[in-house]
Amino acid sequence: MKHLLLALALLTATAAHAGPTTLVGDQIDAAMIRTIDTGYGLGRIFGYGLDAPFVVQDGNADQHQYSSAFKLDVDGNKFSIRFLQLAGWQDGIVLRLSDLDFSPIGSVLSSVSVNTNLAGYTLTTGADWIDLGLGGTHFTANTYFIGTFDVSSVPEPTPLALVSLGLLYVSALRKRARNPDTR
Known about the structure:
- The chain is of the alpha+beta class.
- It is about 20% helix and about 35% strand.
- The protein has helices spanning about 1-15, 155-180; strands spanning about 25-35, 45, 55, 65, 70-75, 80-85, 85-90, 95-100, 105-115, 120-125, 130-135, 140, 145-155.
- Helix 1 (about 1-15) runs antiparallel to helix 2.
């Protein structure tokens, strides 16, 4: 039993030293993508901002402007979009945030909590990406979108393996204690 408790203590100690989940210091990509060909082609839209990956910093130092439409700011645990004028988006336009490598290692995006007054958007997430569907939406200078990353941790194999080995050892000790002839 004490071996089981020791293995659980090791697992708890490893999880406790993980620290806060953040994107600060991570290089991510933010891109405007055409997913429907309306005569302009498909894929990344170049030349209006959001053309290359950047390193996430808390605060406004990593703020990026996409043409005259909006400013994007990605921080350690959230992202915000501040729209700048009256306009709208064609069908099939997506803001894609990708290569979201949260630290500590093993943390993955599970969902995004949203605070917005933008109507008609769609939101799709994966373990390290977000697609914000803007097609068909309209906005003004008073429109905003704030997404907070909901991140879960995937257990590291080493602590999980230690717990498994500890359980197997305890099981073997119990079996040996029940059958003294197997010594």
